[in-house]
Amino acid sequence: MTSAPWNTLGPLTVDNALPAVLCEELLRHFEHSTQRPRSYQGVVDEALRKCEYVEVPEHLAALVTAAVTPHIDTFFGVESYPVPGQPTLIYRYGVGAGFVTHHDEVTAVELERAATNGQPVIGGDLTTVLFLSGPDEYDGGALYFEQPPLDLRPAKGALVAFPATRDFMHGVRPITAGARYTFLSRRFVKSSVLSAA
Ligand SMILES: O=C(O)CCC(=O)C(=O)O
Ligand SMILES: [Fe+2]
Predict the structure, then answer these.
(1) What is the pTM of this model?
(2) Which fold has domain 6-189?
(3) What are the structural domain ranges in the chain?
(4) From the CA of 153, which ligand is nearest?
């Protein structure tokens, strides 16, 4: 039971949220797809974010949704659902910068640049990250939060979820060896005041 508002809770971490076979299928999809450099605020700059992405087909995204929704709804005390029509992405971070500290709110400049740069814009109330790599597969690369300070290098198949707001500043520490794969989607909270803002 929780009485705190959902947008003050998190990050939630759940080990073994995704079965190993689904992690493998998502990784196979990544390897067989066209990989593109991912932007930050609509600009590709490897000093701020060194990352490639592919989009996930609907049938695979639906399997992830089914696996994670009960964990997320129970923890945040809400009903949530993937943002309709919005792509979900797989990210690969090789050796390099990781991803600088940021929040997950969509900004006006990102939207403006998306009109011409071909980059997907993914916005919503909650961010959902699934780890498709275990900590033995890369060095560095922690998903970190600033306040309170927290560094996460969870097991393969783990879920991390948190409000996509400016209160949850986070980033990915530089990767110093190996490669780190994550699945990224955003969700709306039903009847959320924030989702209408
Ligand atoms: O890949 C990750 O661990 C986090 C990525 C992230 O923060 C984002 O896409 O906004
Ligand atoms: Fe983020």
Answers:
(1) 0.94
(2) Jelly Rolls (2.60.120)
(3) 6-189
(4) 1
